[in-house]
Design brief:
The complex is a heterodimer of chains A (117) and B (294). Chain A is mainly alpha-helical and 117 residues long. Chain A is 49% helix and 0% strand. In chain A, helix 2 (37-50) packs across helix 6 and helix 5 packs across helix 6. Chain B has a single domain (2-293), classed as Porin (Beta Barrel). Chain B has helices spanning 2-18, 145-148, 281-293; strands at 43-54, 57-72, 75-86, 90-103, 112-123, 152-166, 169-180, 187-197, 214-226, 229-230, 237-246, 251-260, 268-278. Chain B has a twelve-stranded antiparallel β-barrel. In chain B, a hairpin with a 2-residue loop joins strand 2 (57-72) and strand 3. Classes of the chains: A mainly alpha (117), B mainly beta (294).
């Protein structure tokens, strides 16, 4: 039995809805590793591995990407988590959604211990 | 085997000499693509040999060497050079492929669609089995190289890549369409993969063998017939566990033993991969040109 083309509209609507559903932490989400020394150390290791190439080993910025020291202190943990996960593809900041949420939170834990200069 | 070593060994040597800390967190898949793009300005160089075996066919090693460049955060460009060596039949370069991937949505969504377009200019001796489409079958690899190298294929390939991150898992589906530019009909195929790091949280210590450096999963891929005859019947189908080891130096090692599921499939396809990421490659090249201009 042939389906009328109009019958596939609900399927398309469902697909588009699923595609457009944003993923990631809420901006108000709490960091599960807040104040954890081991998470800070793990975050520092992850920063050196994934972020230091662009933001510099001390997060002071390079010609490729800006310093993070001012921004990360004032940002809510959930906002920071969402930003790292999504990146800003237009401006060149890659999406780090390939890292599991736990590692993103470890990065947030480390970044929020950086002192502004 | 010797040809593969000839190609692979200098490459590994160069990687070893140039190795510097990079941004490696590579997908473990060989066939399936996910929505993660190359970081802008970075160049990833990889070699991916595959050893194929089937009854009545000489064992072969196909290989593709790839150069993947992050043009933009949403756009990745790749160039591949294919080669093969067949037991008792010798080896040869079999062609090249040029591919671009575009991320359609800039933010992270439940499902992240990516469009893939590729032009390939290869000959009939190609044995990389990078994609399995239409009614591709093992018998296609039974003819001698001197005969198949004369068959030139100029093909246009498209993929719709749908990929999701779910609680540490990556789940990716690819729908593949291939069309010979001069003749024939559209051939279809698919790839499906899921994978997960062995540990979701990173350990506090610097380590090479930590569980978070390993990513394991499974791939399923095969043909889906052709335009007017979309079917699983008479197609090659494969299942392949995958394992990737992301070294802190920026090098990634991958392995995948694949098994044919239908009579048309090779019985085993064992894939290996070595890749290394060169961070800031685009900026360094840009500097060279700016310096020359001044």
């Amino acid at each position: 039995m042939r389906r009328h083309p109009i019958q596939i509209i609900p399927t398309i609507v469902l697909f588009v809805t699923v595609v457009y559903a944003k993923s990631g932490a809420e901006p108000s989400a709490e960091n599960p590793f807040q104040n954890s020394d081991s998470a800070r150390a793990a975050g520092q290791k992850l920063f050196a591995r994934h972020c230091a190439e662009c933001h510099g080993p001390a997060a002071d910025g390079t010609e490729r990407a800006p310093s993070l020291r001012e921004f990360v202190r004032s940002a809510a943990p959930g906002v920071l988590h969402t930003f790292i996960k999504n990146g800003n593809l237009r401006s060149g900041m890659p999406s780090w959604s390939r890292l599991p949420d736990a590692q993103l939170w470890q990065l947030v834990t480390y970044l929020q211990t950086l002192e502004p200069r | 085997m010797i040809a593969a070593l000839r190609i692979g060994f200098p490459f590994l040597l160069i990687l070893g000499v140039l190795a510097s800390p990079g941004l490696a967190q590579e997908r473990p898949y060989f066939i399936t693509y996910d929505h993660h793009m190359e970081e802008p300005g970075n160049l990833e160089v990889a070699t991916n040999p595959v050893i194929g075996q089937a009854r009545g066919i000489s064992t072969f090693i196909g290989n593709w060497t790839e150069f993947e460049y992050g043009a933009k955060g949403w756009w990745t460009s790749e160039f591949y050079v294919d080669s093969q060596h067949t037991l008792h039949d010798g080896g040869l370069l079999t062609g090249f492929r040029f591919e671009n991937r575009f991320r359609l949505l800039l933010g992270e969504h439940r499902i992240n669609p990516v469009v893939y377009v590729e032009y390939e200019h290869i000959n009939g001796a190609d044995k990389t089995l990078k994609e399995v489409v239409g009614f591709d079958r093992k018998e296609g690899h039974a003819k001698p190289n001197w005969e198949t190298r004369l068959e030139h294929e100029r093909e246009f390939e498209t993929k719709l890549i749908l990929s999701s991150q779910i609680k540490g898992w990556n789940v990716s589906e690819n729908i593949v369409g291939v069309k010979n530019i001069h003749e024939g009909v559209w051939e279809f195929g698919y790839a499906f993969g899921f994978s997960r790091p062995l540990a979701l949280a990173a350990s506090a210590d610097a380590c090479t063998f930590c569980r978070e450096n390993f990513n394991a999963g499974l791939e399923l891929y095969g043909g889906l017939g052709e335009w007017g005859d979309v079917t699983f019947k008479g197609t090659s189908q494969y299942i392949a566990p995958v394992l990737a080891w992301n070294l802190p130096s920026g090098t990634t090692l991958r392995v995948s033993p694949g098994f044919g599921l239908t009579d048309q499939s090779h019985s085993t396809l064992i894939r290996f991969g070595v890749s290394h990421e060169f961070s800031g490659f685009g900026q360094q090249v840009g500097k060279l040109f700016r310096r020359n201009r001044s």
